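Hi Y.,

Following your request, here is the sequence exactly as I used it, all 339 residues.
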Amino acid sequence: MPAQRGAGSVFLGLSFRDLEIMAPLDRLADLDWDEAQDNPLGTEAKAIIDEITAIDDHSGFLITAAGGVGVRAGGFGTGLFVASEAAGYVLIDEVRVLRVLPSNPLSFANNRSELFIRGAAITEIPLAYGHDFELNEAGRLALGGALKLMYGNTYEASTLVTEAEDLADDYKQYEESSSAFGVDLGALYRLPNDRLALGLVLKNLNGPEFDTYSGTTHTEALQARAGTLYEAVSNKLAFAVDLDLTRNETPLAGYDSRMLGGGVEFRPAEWFAARLGLMKNLASSEQADPGLVLTGGIAVGAKEFAFNLALAGTTGTDDFQGYPYRSDMRVALSFQSRW
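Below is the corresponding structure, written out as tokens. Let me know if you'd prefer a different format.
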């Protein structure tokens, strides 16, 4: 059978992480902020003050979305990829929290606690090339790299907590656009029997920078990730482990990401595979640590065309306004074709 020289893929992924902000927001939603500020001496004001002063500085939520399409012909590849990440957090006014008359500047009636949203959407168009080197009895080594044109949209928005619903329609109050170039590198080594593989990916080696409305710089910092795969039992069972080698910042100040993951794949037939694993953020603080995240997925299809579904979530559920959710939830879909 002739070697397959072309490939194409389409993917979409979404994730949501609650870093101990949804529970206090849920309780605050049941309280009347307007009544509390009209009557800062009342019980409603006391309840709200107790809630907002207990919110941790690093509490917030993260929403990420990614999608794209890629094609490969021989050793060359290109595509269009978009990745967006946004954070929401509350900046508490811990000064104006006294239960005194509005005439007092420190009265809760004058509280200016605000809800902030900040994030970035990066569109990439790469030109990539990779080559597979035969090392005879030492195995095989594949090396590749990409030079990519990057277009960044950074956005920021804020409003008083009492007017939080306004952000749903205007979460890009202050938006800025700019462009840059980025460089990625990758390597994959396989032993002669093809059962063990070791990989390394370096993303954004040059640290491309983008403008923001506030005048600061948004940097896509270097990210490095390594992984290994071992295939056993006549290729019906495989084990994988991967680790972020870098500590990666997120739009939520004080919350970084450094993921360690591992899993197993069982392939009872050529056209079907089931996967199960665990992952954990090694960089999360004790105040915002969702713990272990369970991962799973399936792959259906032949070598020429395959569909993949991946899901992840924490084991326990929380509740917001009567709707159950998990503090860390992720879903990804992809379609792959080879010819």
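The helical segments are 22-29, 33-38, 43-52.

Thanks again,
Q.
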